Amino acid sequence: MSESTIEKKESSKNGIPSSERPIIVKGARVHNLKNIDVEIPRNKLTVVTGVSGSGKSSLAFDTIYAEGQRRYVESLSSYARQFLERMDKPDVDFMQGISPAMAIQQKTTSSNPRSTVGTSTEIYDYVRLLFARIGKTISPKSGKQVQKDTPETIIKELFDELEEKTKFYVLFPIDLREGRKMEEQLTVLKEKGLTRLLKVDDEQIVDLSGDDADPKKIKPKNYRVLVDRLALKKDDEGRSRLADSIETAFREGNGRCSIKVRDGKEYPFSERFERDGMEFLEPTPQMFSFNNPFGACDTCEGFGRVAGIDEDLVIPDHDKTIRGGAVAPFDSPKFSKYLKDFIKVAAKEQLPIDVPYKNLDKNTKRILWNGKDGYTGIHGFFKDVKSQFYKVHMRVLYSRYRGYSRCPDCEGFRVRKDALYVKVGGLHIGEVSEMTIGYAREFFEELTLTDFEKEVAGQILYEIRKRLKYLDEVGLDYLTLERLTNTLSGGESQRISLANSLGSSLIGSLYVLDEPTIGLHPRDNDRLINILKSLRDIGNTVLVVEHDPEMIKSADNIIDIGPFAGTYGGEVVFSGPYDELLKSNTLTGKYLSGKKEIPVPKKRRKGNGKSLLVEGASEHNLKSIDVEFPLGKLVCVTGVSGSGKSTLVHDTLYAFIQNELGTWKEKIGRHRKLSGLRHVEAVEMVDQSPIGRSTRSNPATYTKAFDGIRDLFSNTRQSKIMGYTPGHFSFNVPGGRCEACQGEGVQKIEMQFMADIELVCEECGGTRFRKEILQVKYRGKNIHDVLEMSVSDALDFFVDENSIVNKLQPLDDVGLGYLKLGQSATTLSGGEAQRVKLAKFLSKTNNDHTLYFFDEPTTGLHFEDIAKLLKSFNDLVNQGHSVIIIEHNLDVIKSADWIIDIGPEGGFGGGQVVATGTPEEIASVEESHTGQFLKEIL
């Protein structure tokens, strides 16, 4: 029986075609999963939920996705497969129905400073192609389009411009090529039979065969070589003779010719791509790429910024006018002459100088910075300062304003000058990149093309519009195409990956997503849910690890893993539709049905009466706002994605405080004034960046509990006999560690064209230590066994060792009891890394008044864990500290003492304070999106 017959028999088994058969997993034991069986319906939206650390990711990513990926790699070349014999198969008895799988995780996409939203979504690549295909090159001198002239286009122009029987000359310029002298050039012309020259100003004809042709008197700019004298005839014969003459002129004039009307003007033409005496490059896709040496601006090498003068230091307050002292260096008696020079130029050019700097048009800013006529410009001023570096005070003055500024040559657009002369729809590629996705979508939807352009670029435009539509629909309309991907939050980069997946329109695939609602305001959840449903509806299976009630409610099928975390989890406690989950007795079911809830605080704390005041915050999209942050309270900063929360809290408030403490090297968000710092003695930012870049960093080393553990092992009788020190029990230094993998436990194999593969070290079997070290036991466990313990188990094991318990207890308190002590920091999710940091701060007893910043701490948290987290926050505030949280989770928002709501929309439509007050006060504000959701739960 042939294989295809067997397949057909298989696929019609039980009458269900294989494309509709569910994904079946039996006996999964990865990490803490307890031999579980799961069935996931095909082409449906399934949500996997449960408390943090219960095993959701182990099931979704480490079992189902890993197997899908492994099976795909098995279909690859024998080169790739030779490593896959050693690539671990997920620990599972049986799996069936797995499709090619794609994971969309929260990891920030790239740390590459060249990667932008446009390049990572491929939109920029299509835009480059569009500009190369249908872009019109516009001369910066005359503003007219640059084209190559042909005899046909010249004849058409002459027929349109001139009357019948108009007399004119066909000419070409004298070109002294290859360093020829005029005498030689005239001899060459005579040999070719071109014996007449025309003097342009008085139309006098010089005969080269006569005696009056003196080479010394003939200047190339005043004379042209005469090819023909004609009167315009618009019939075939006239057209034919004119075409022949023009062709001759082009051939002999090195691609240039001109038509001079008798007693009238001269029309210059060129076969080359030039106009107004400038030669232009013909558009190619490479010319628009800032990642290609050919297309990148030479000065900034495609980064858009150069080391030089920082605009925000030169103009610290963008609300000031130029006359009112906006330019800081000119606002002193010594350099006020520069301001006077600018005012003279402004009067002549009619430039507005009594308008706030932020409202000035591009032309005024260009003249202010680059100078004109008698005014040297800000750049010119600093050039003068540099030329006097032998004076100490000039070096000090320059250092005060040093930083990074927009590249003066490409004006921050990253590409070579020639690329900026090419326009589509009246804009060059730099101006298109500056648009937000929302505006860009509108621009490309409304772009009107000729029939010819539609034929050439129709498909390109379709691809651009499709990708912009998906990015807009996942709620990223406020991001600009030039935004660097390394400045995006985890949620934003995940939604970009999601939009990319939609753009590729694959069907029959398995998509595994890790909390896609992170960083999304409840208002935007519906848009995201609709997108996941559309992925499902075109024929894909969507598996989402999620805690969001809206997402759980919209799922076709829900798998609840639990009942608790770590060793107490790993079981399927519920599988089925939403209605049945509400009736179930699981933790998730109880919270969703309202049997259990996070209570609203009985009263709001009054705080300590002190506050921090930020005035005139105007970085990015902030609209010069004044915001007061009360201290001694739990303060929540809310608002839709892209409204300006992080810009206000992280880039302005936190950056300024850190700068005052002398530990900030980055840029500080623009603002007028920040007061109240004397009330804060220390500041801590608890964000989602990894707790360590190295695979060696783990919860035990980070919390310093490992120091105490190593001391215990080095004090055992066996260690004393062998002479082992605490250093022998460290995998970071030579001595006790396995030298084959240098204490990593894994060896990395570099794969061509694929991600590197990590394989367990064959020497130590992944234990990280030498065999002799592993023979040292403490209460029956060696050092590797201890690192494999969960935090909760370690607390029981070391119950009478206070130095270790005190370090580990806070990890358990913030809901991380399930983490292994030796779990690599690089495998922790953003939310876990953030809670490890929180635990570290909780374990410290400090009496200084500390201001804690948290950036979406509920990432990856179940309702039960959020309750624990809120307790930790309240502990910090009750100890006399202040906590400021950027958050979208309504349970945290309703528990805050004070809310600052930024918005009302994202991007340009945001950046204002919509409302401030207690949750009850915010709920009564109609304009606040947050208020509308709070009203429902309060």
From TrEMBL:
GO cellular component: cytoplasm; excinuclease repair complex
Basic and acidic residues bias (residue ranges): 1-12
Domain ABC transporter: 355-594, 603-935
Pfam families: UvrA_DNA-bind, UvrA_inter
Biological processes annotated in GO: nucleotide-excision repair
Main subcellular location: cytoplasm
Subcellular location: Cytoplasm
Keyword Zinc-finger listed: yes
Disordered: annotated span: 1-20
InterPro entries: ABC_transporter-like_ATP-bd (IPR003439), ABC_transporter-like_CS (IPR017871), ATP_grasp_subdomain_1 (IPR013815), P-loop_NTPase (IPR027417), UvrA (IPR004602), UvrA_DNA-bd (IPR041552), UvrA_inter (IPR041102)
Keyword tags: ATP-binding, Cytoplasm, DNA damage, DNA excision, DNA repair, DNA-binding, Excision nuclease, Metal-binding, Nucleotide-binding, Repeat, Zinc, Zinc-finger
GO MF, one example: nuclease activity
Domain of life: Bacteria
Homology family: Belongs to the ABC transporter superfamily. UvrA family.
Name assigned to this protein: UvrABC system protein A
